[in-house]
Amino acid sequence: MTYNLTYRHGTIADLRQLKDLGLIAYSLIKDRLTPENWHTMETGLKNEERVAQLINSSLSYVCLEGENIVGMAYLLKHGNPTEIYPADWAYIRMVGVHPDYRGRGICTQLMQLALNQARQSGEKILGLHTSEVMEDAMHIYENMGFRKVKDLGPKFGMQYYLYWLEL
Fold first, then answer.
1. In the beta sheet, which residues pair with residue 73?
2. Hey, what's the torsion of the CAs at 15, 17, 20, 21, to 10 degrees?
3. CA-closest candidate to residue 92, choices 54, 65, 120, 56
4. Which of 117, 56, 47, 57 is nearest to 82 (CA)?
5. Residues 136, 137, 138, 142, Cα dihedral to 10°
6. Number of domains into which the chain is organized
7. What is the reported pLDDT for 1?
8. Each residue's pLDDT tens digit, 63-99
9. What CATH number does the domain containing 40 carry?
10. What's the pLDDT at 3?
């Protein structure tokens, strides 16, 4: 089957589709979590206010098949520190691809768009975090030059890691 995939910046008008895609994409790990940990993750993914805040504070990238969003990634510029990211790091959040579209290079393309923007914006370090169950994603990140720099400890019952790329 041939797909006609297009890429663009996401907007707040994409809120519902982005929220739904987050649930669908991350449900792939549901069976690797305890019911309690999945419930906690699912609650966060369903939180429209949280998704809207992420859209509004980032430069989002989406992949579309027709009018349907099938991939997403969010780039946050430096100056948005968290307990994970220092203030001088830009970072990527919530990379997700619809399960029906996995293996088509969507994650790599979304990551490349974010990486290119970070470089154009003069960012010095680009970070991301991921968990031990995201083996395919870790492989993509490492192939793009990201290096694991820290074990973040468990969250949702999984080991999380911090990655960075010096731009």
1. 61
2. -110
3. 54
4. 57
5. 110
6. 1
7. 63
8. 999 999 999 999 999 999 999 999 999 999 999 999 9
9. 3.40.630.30
10. 77
- Among residues 81, 158, 79, 92, the alpha carbon closest in space to that of 127 is found at 92
Q: Which of 131, 137, 54 minimizes the C-alpha distance to 95?
A: 137
20 φ, ψ (degrees, to nearest 5): -65, -40
Q: Residue 134 belongs to what domain range?
A: 5-166
**3-state DSSP: the chain helix, strand, coil percent, rounded to 5?**
40, 30, 25
In sequence order, which residues have a C-beta less than 8 Å from that of residue 131 and are 6 or more positions away? 29, 155, 156, 158, 159, 160, 161
In the sheet with 90-97, reading across from the earlier edge strand, the strands are 5-9, 59-65, 68-76, 90-97, 125-131, 158-166, 147-155
Cα gap 18→20, rounded to integer Å = 5
Q: How far is CA 34 from CA 17, 45, 46, 58, 119, in A?
A: 26, 16, 18, 31, 39
At 82, is the secondary structure helix, strand, or coil? coil
Contacts of 94 (CB under 8 A, 6+ apart): 22, 54, 72, 73, 74
